[in-house]
Design brief:
The protein is an alpha+beta fold. It is built from five helices and seven strands, in the order H-E-E-E-H-E-H-E-E-H-H-E. A hairpin with a 6-residue loop joins strand 1 (about 40-45) and strand 2. The longest helix has 15 residues, at about 15-30. The chain starts with 13 loop residues before the first helix and ends with a strand.
């Protein structure tokens, strides 16, 4: 029997764990209680670079809001009296950021190689499902987003220290 609890176990199989997470995620609208309880995950579906088939991977993420959403209103502008409109889309105007760690392995995960070949992906965030464009962050933007990822998921810091490659930071931008 394949061990599915401890990643350090000899018989540990990520595919089995990932499938259990995907099944529970979809059944509960992203509210995990049995597998990875309380984790903040999205499901990323990429198109296989060789097969052309969809492959889904659960990933931890952080939300990156463009600077314009974080800036306070100008003091010259009158104060708004209307309530802000409700946003149906949980990531409207924002980007999702994921880390292609592959548990600090020497090679990039297959999902990352897939999106390099085909950057149009599908994201499932809780009960919302949408198409997105994936891009690898570079330079100062990568540094800023990496810091946000580590703040949200401190365990990722050890992946960087263990890896022999620069681990890609991937930005997912919702398509209209």
């Amino acid at each position: 029997m394949t061990e599915t609890r401890d990643a350090q176990s000899r018989g540990f199989d990520f595919r089995v764990v990932n499938q259990a997470v995907i099944t529970e995620y979809r059944a509960t609208g992203g509210k995990l209680e049995k597998t990875l309880a309380g984790s903040r995950l999205l499901l990323l579906t990429t198109v296989g670079e060789r097969t052309g088939r969809g492959h889904t991977t659960p990933l931890g993420y952080v939300v990156d809001e463009p600077a314009s959403l974080n800036e306070p209103a100008s003091v010259d502008e009158p104060e708004a009296v209307d309530e802000p409109e409700a946003v149906d889309e949980p990531v409207a105007g924002r980007r999702l950021v994921v880390y292609a760690s592959n548990m600090a392995a020497a090679e990039h995960p297959q999902w990352y190689r897939n999106l390099l070949a085909q950057p149009k992906v599908t994201v499932e965030l809780e009960a919302d499902r949408f198409d997105a464009e994936a891009a690898t962050a570079t330079g100062p933007e990568r540094d800023r987003l990496y810091a946000a990822l580590v703040e949200g998921m401190p365990g990722l810091r050890t992946h960087r220290d263990q890896a022999t490659r620069e681990i890609p930071v991937v930005v997912l931008t919702r398509l209209p």
